[in-house]
Specification:
Chain A has helices at about 10-25, 45-60, 85-90, 100-115, 115-130, 245-255, 270-280, 295-315, 330-335, 335-355, 370-385, 390-400, and strands at about 135, 155, 160-165, 180-185, 195-200, 205-210, 220-230, 235, 285, 290. Chain A is of the alpha+beta class. Chain A has three domains: about 35-130, Orthogonal Bundle (Butyryl-Coa Dehydrogenase, subunit A, domain 1); about 135-240, Butyryl-CoA Dehydrogenase, subunit A, domain 2; about 270-400, Butyryl-CoA Dehydrogenase, subunit A, domain 3. Chain B has a four-stranded antiparallel sheet with strand order 2-3-7-6, covered by helices on one side. Chain B has a three-stranded mixed sheet with strand order 1-4-5. Classes of the chains: A alpha+beta, B alpha+beta. Chains A and B meet through helix 7, helix 8 and helix 12 of A and helix 1, helix 7, strand 9, helix 8 and helix 9 of B.
Chain lengths: ~400, ~375
Amino acid sequence: MARPEEETESRENAEFRRQVRAWIQGNKPADPGFKLPQSFLEVESERQFVFLRDWQRKVYEAGYLGLDWPAEYGGHSDPHKRQRIVSQELNRAGAPFMVNVIGMQWAGPTILAYGTEEQKKKYLKNILSGEDIWCQGFSEPGAGSDLAGLQATATPDGEGWVVTGHKVWTTLAHFAKWMILLARTDQAAHKYAGISYFLFPMDAPGVTVQPLVKMTGEGGFNQVIFDKAPMPKSALLGQLGQGWQIAMTTLTFERGAAEGTGGGSATPTAESVRAVATLAKRMRRDGRAAAEDPVIRDRLAQLWIEEEALRLTGQRARVAGLNMDDRPLATRLMNKLVYSELGQRMTEFACEVLGPDGALWLGDPSAPDKAEWPRAYMNSFGVTIGGGTSEVQRNIIGERVLGLPKTK
Amino acid sequence: MTLRLEVPTDFGFTEEHALLRGETRRFLAERLPIAELRRQVDAGVRLDRGLWKEIAQLGWVGLVLPERFGGAGLGWLHLEVLMEEMGRRLVPGPFLGSLLAGIAIERGADDAQRERWLPAIASGETIASLALVEPGGAFEGDAVAATADPVEGGYVLRGRKNHVVGGADAGLLVAAFREPAGRTSLFAVDLPCAGVSVEDEVSIDPTRPTARIAFDGVRVGREARLAGDGAAALADTLVRGAAALAAEQVGGAESVLQITRQYAIDRKQFDRPIGFFQAVKHPIVDMMCGIELARSLACGAASALDAGTPSAEVHARMAKSLAGDVYAQAVRKGVQLHGGYGFTWDCDVHLYFRRALWSRPMPGDAIHHRRRLGEVLFDDAGGRV
């Protein structure tokens, strides 16, 4: 049996893929000698951040980011839809991720959709180059899954606004120059109608960024407290009171329902079954390779089936007829739910493959793969919870795709 | 070594496929509403000759057979579409048997043999079946125990084959037998035939009548042995059969999803439609996600077969494995979420429940296919693992 590998593609795209692959081989940064974050959710130190930002700039300057963004805003207006190829090759090569993911995949596409010409000119190019890092101010202590219950306020003040409130789970806030911010601008209006969407400058006075510690013991995300923090009138994105609608667009991008834009991918999922299979060949169990254990083989084959099914579902989502027009949204809206839960089961299973040595944690010299597997398993919850929990995803799919009665 | 392959970016999907889906769906909605299916089940109809004739006239039996042998000459993605729609409606009768027998002859015979049998299969004039499963459950070529001993002018066939779809109505059987030298060969046997006994089974799925067949020293001529490499033809047929059955399972699971979804909207408890409650809503969503994933593999397998890429076997085994499990999950939740009504004969879900139980192990259940996939994942010398 031959193994599935990749889609057959046009000669031009195959040639482009070869170019990209060669460039990455020649330019991929060497191991910096300190621990790198597994994803953008856990960039802790300045040196980690600088390393990653420099790498993003290098990829951008080579012309491999923003291929699908308009050339007038720093992209390439590439008609060949080749950004995916770059992202695939970066993943395949195990290259470091693009640190400005929130900028490239969430803020950028939202600004492209709703921004004024001036806003697009001001923000987009620096998102791609990594010059301006972005963070997201949506969730609050009292508004998680029920995001529309948010209480942060933006009050008109002179020529602009002042913001007061409390945001949480703010990844990269300690390095960010800008924040996409949801704040209430009309207390009297309906829950959804009173929210507006802002592009907030993080260097404003009255902003306090405090680190939060994740279950892995690592930092990387924060809470942000606003005490009458000022922003200019031009910080508003879209119309006053249009915030909820725009936020839904951002979340659609965040959940990967739309094609990932800008470049890079938020979570490394490609090839993960193969990584676990390789692990199973290395680990011993009952005196032989774990890969020879029929139960291990069966469970890994199952994960391989699901991984390949998800890959083909992504491919199928782009073919109108095969998307089964009965419910065209299904294959796109289910993506985040399925890949996050599959990734979680994959890393959890890898921990089982480790056997007793899976009990060792970061810093132990005998920990297999420096304890990257249990760390990845713990970190996987950032993906099944962040951007709308799996439970909320199931509500959204049930209601929007299947027409089941609304929970809220 | 990197294996480059695969599923073409657009899966090779064309307007023609969409057309076939629409026509098939319309025809079956009119010809086979659930009330008609239930009438046939309750009356114990084994073969609805009228329906069989209509299906044959629509070109379904010969859909993937070459035009020069009376087929429609269409591709495997067409078959995927057709099987999905047929699975949705639980089309009863011997169709699957004739489909697989035709594929086996096309893969394993020479032109004279194809000319002899395929046009009659494609036109529906001959109901054929592929007799696959032996006592003990074996069906892949290397496990065939039935024997073909050469004698003057032909062979003597001995062995048993179970769960033969439409076997009691078949005029032609295709089956694998082992020759003394050890090679596996396919034989086509016209029925009735001295020494072949056919006995109805009580199928768990009344819409899929099956028979057990005994070959007790059956004399056949040399021309009954399909001329090609029997083991290769059987393997090819099993890949295509797994892909086709996976598509049928996806279609069946889709119907269960639709039925259950509607019930969750219509049925009220605690003053609300039960679909309001997340304990009901979420399993229905999981059902849908599983169906979409399995559908992607079924389309991928079909597309790889059309493109002639070597990943077809991997994709077909993946598709059959996942679709079988997804169908099983759908009927399990489907019955459960209907509550007390789900436990009754009146509720349609059990019809699908039966088909899901029937098709899960044939040909090859998820455990079987995962074992073979594990060999590729871990052992394939060409692979990167």
